Amino acid sequence: MARFSANLGFLWHDVPLPDAIRAAAAAGFDAVECHWPYDVPAKDVAAALAETGLSMLGLNTRRGDLDAGENGVAALPNREHDARAFIDEAITYAVAIKAANIHVMAGFATGQAAHDCFIANLNYACTAAAPHDITILIEPLNHYDAPGYFLDSTTQAASIIAEVGAPNLKLMFDCYHIQRLEGNLTTKLSDLLPIIGHIQFAAVPDRGAPDHGEIHYPHIYAHLASIGYTAPLGAEYKPDGATDTSLAWLHNA
Ligand SMILES: O=C(O)[C@H](O)C(=O)CO
Ligand SMILES: [Mg+2]
Predict the structure, then answer these.
(1) Which fold has domain 4-252?
(2) Residue 26 burial (10 A CB sphere; 0-12, 13-18, 19+)
(3) How many A from CA of 104 to the centre of ligand 1?
(4) Taking the model in full, what pTM does it have?
């Protein structure tokens, strides 16, 4: 039977993070994950996790200058100082709340210099995270929602993971983004299984609850079980209204 992690960047995003953790536990999720928890003291998050018994699977590095539209800086040449400060900050926070994964956000960039910069920053992140048993994740984002994002295919992600060659660098396979970019989810999940560190999902194309749209998720759950993937799947969707009224898919899974 599939297990699920509530992505608190989208689910219960309207309540403080510790209360969102409690809401996810009450709803029956097996784990939680978040985007950018940095405004909340880590001790408050750790206390809510201890109280509920849930683990926080992951968090993201900061995006950078939001007013300037940044969406990560790790592939931005000449921003190494910020990129590494964001990586250090994410590791410190992840250690405090015992989070297993950090998604290092690349940003809007293209070309060889961006590639070289991303590789160097990922090397830095993997080396710094390894003593804490933290895995670094990279995630291709679709170019409808995030046009110009540096990482936009599974082929590119697999090639970067091979080039860095660190055992703690993995792919965040977000079924929503990969369906919009490439499709062929069943085969890609099997082929990429050795490098997958976490899986997320949502309906396509509206990014709503995973109970409608062009992906039949019960097939994906069964396929993942058949290939031995048992980790919680990250429900990273945008509820149409209150999160609590969007959970029929969870109770029917
Ligand atoms: O948008 C997504 O799919 C991500 O998982 C994320 O972390 C924020 O961009
Ligand atoms: Mg995602």
Answers:
(1) TIM Barrel (3.20.20)
(2) exposed
(3) 10
(4) 0.97
